[in-house]
Specification:
The chain has one domain. The protein contains three helices and seven strands. Strands 1-2-4-3-5-6-7 form a seven-stranded antiparallel β-sheet, covered by helices on one side. By secondary structure, the protein is of the alpha+beta class.
Length: about 130
């Protein structure tokens, strides 16, 4: 695991990178995280939409890697993915979970550099949840 905290006068960025031995352990870690997410330990399913207060977050879940970023400023997902690997066609992410501050989450997947949105659950109850 790598953990980075970048600080300046206007913002702080938290960057976490986990590497696992296999995809089962990677997915298990991510599912454990969303099963008890945030200070109130709220449980979410893949594709569910919810709101998070204030800060912006991004999860990238790969075969053996889990990347998490958090910032007060908006996170430019595609630009960040390009930084992680300049060869766009080599990018494969099982899930890309964008959690913009005070807005509904966006779930996607990326195969061979192509980002595609997942059809999420859009129930009224899920829309009103706030962490």
């Amino acid at each position: 695991m790598e953990k980075w905290y970048l600080l300046n006068k206007k913002d702080s960025i938290v960057a976490l990178h986990y590497e696992f031995k296999d995809s089962l352990r990677t997915k298990n870690a991510f599912f454990n995280w969303i099963d008890c997410y945030g200070p109130k330990c709220t449980s979410y399913q893949v594709g569910s939409q919810f709101k998070k207060q204030n800060r912006n977050s991004l999860f990238l879940i790969g075969t053996n890697h889990l990347v998490y970023l958090e910032s007060q400023s908006p996170i430019k997902t595609e630009a960040l993915i390009g930084i992680l690997n300049e060869k766009k066609k080599d990018q494969n992410w099982i899930y890309v979970l964008e959690i913009p501050g005070r807005k509904l989450t966006r779930w996607s997947t990326m195969k061979e550099g192509e980002l595609k949105e997942l059809n999420g659950q859009k129930t009224e109850d899920a829309r009103q949840k706030t962490i």
